[in-house]
Amino acid sequence: MKLPLRLLAVGSLTVLASHPHLAAQSISESGIADVAFNEPQPLPVTNALPVQREVAYGDAIHGGTVIVRGEVLSPPYRVGQIGRKVLINDVLVAMLPGTTDERGRERPDRSRVSPKHFVANVETRLYNGDVLICFDDRTRVFCYSGDEPYFLQALIQAENLEERVLAALDYSVGGFDDSGSARIPTSQWRTALADFEPTDSLLQFIEVSGINDEEGDYLSEDDEAYQRSDPTRWMYALNVAGMLLVVVSAGKLLGNRPESGIPWAQIVESPDATRLSRDATVMILLLSSFDLVATLLTDSSGGFTELNPLTGSLLKNPAMLAVFKLTATGLGTGILWHRRKFAGAQQAAWWMCFLLTLVTIRWVTIQSLFYV
Question: Is the separation of the CB atoms in 62 and 75 below 8 Å?
Fold first, then answer.
C-alpha cells in the first residue's frame, strides 16, 4: 500500500517536533524528509551556589551573660538559627545534629532536636538571668547567676587538663545538650577543655564578679562567720546527746515499771514507786528540753515542716515557743511530782517518759539521715 507523499512529509515534521534530539537536514523536492539522528546534547553545567538564607534572629535579650570560647559577648543578645547553626550576636554557639546535602544545604535532624525548641530554651535561660558558657560547638553549660565565677576560676587555676576536668565534675555543672539539660561525659570534657585558655575579657569578668586575691581573706572571714552561725554545726553534738538520752531513758523505763491493776487514787510509797516517780520526772524534763532544742535547730536549718499546728504557729516566734514549751513542761512535771505518791501519777509519769523517748528516737533518726 502506497501512502501519499504529502502525508509522509507531515508525519516527518510531527516526529521532529516531538523529539528535539532529531534534526532535519533537508526536505527533497518530492516532499520526502531526509532525517538524520543527532546525538542527544547534555544539559549545561552551572556552578551557581544555592541561595543563601538569612539568619532568623529573635528579639533582643538584655538579661543573662554569654561566654563563647573564653570571650564575653556584649549584651543585648539576639539568638538566631539557620540550618544546623545556632548563633548569638553572629557568633556560633552550637551546631545541631543533622546532615549536609550535596548542594551544601544543612538540614537539622528534627527527630533528635527541634531547632525552635532549642532556641527557645536558650532565650528563656537568658531571660531568667542565667549564664551560658560555650566551650565548643558541642559542649556548653548554663550556670545560675553568681555561680559561674567560681566555676571559671577553678578552670583557670587548674594546672593541667586532668585538674580542669575534675573541676568541671566537682562543680556538677549541668550540661546543655541538643535536647536540654544533661550531664556531660568525661571524654567530652577532655576534648572541650583541652585548649581552654582564659582571655582578657574573661579575666575581667571574673574580677568584676568579686572573686580575686584581694578579697580572699574577706571571703574566708564570711565563711568562718557562717560556720559559727550555721545551725547544722550543732546537729552532731545534739544527735549524740539524743542517743545518750534514749539509752538512759530506756534503762529507767525497763528497771522501774509501775504497778498495774490498782486504782489510780491509791497511795503507793514503796522505794521502787518513789524511784520511778523521781526518775521519770527528771527524764521528762530532759527529753522535753531536747525536743525543744531539736525543733528550733532543725527549723532554722530549713527543709523542716512542723505538723503540730500549735507548735507550727509558735515557730514564727522561737522565743514564744520556748516560753510556752518550758512553761507547759514545768507545770506538768510539777503536778506529777506533787502527786508522786499516787498510783495514777506514777503510771502517767512512766507513760509520758515512754512517749518522749519515742519522740527522741525519731529526732535521732531524722538528724542522722538528713542533717549530720
Answer: yes
175-177 β-sheet, strand order: 71-72, 65-68, 131-134, 140-143, 175-177, 180-182
Which pLDDT belongs to residue 163?
Answer: 85
Structural domain harbouring 29: 5-36
Give the residue from 88, 91, 70, 77 showing the smallest Cα distance to 201. Answer: 70
Q: 145 and 240 share a domain?
A: no
End-to-end CA, the chain: 114
What total number of domains does the chain contain? 3
Give 178's contacts (C-beta < 8 A, 6+ positions apart). 94, 96, 97, 112, 113, 118
274 and 213 in a single domain? The answer is no
pLDDT 10s digits, 279-335? 999 999 999 999 998 888 887 766 567 777 777 777 778 888 889 999 999 999 999
208 shares a domain with 62: yes
Task: Give which of 96, 104, 173 is closest to 137, Cα–Cα.
Answer: 96
The answer for residues whose C-beta is within 8 angstroms of residue 35's C-beta and 6 or more apart is: 12, 15, 16, 22, 24, 25
d(CA 146, CA 144): 6
Using alpha carbons only, how large is the chain's radius of gyration in Å?
Answer: 42
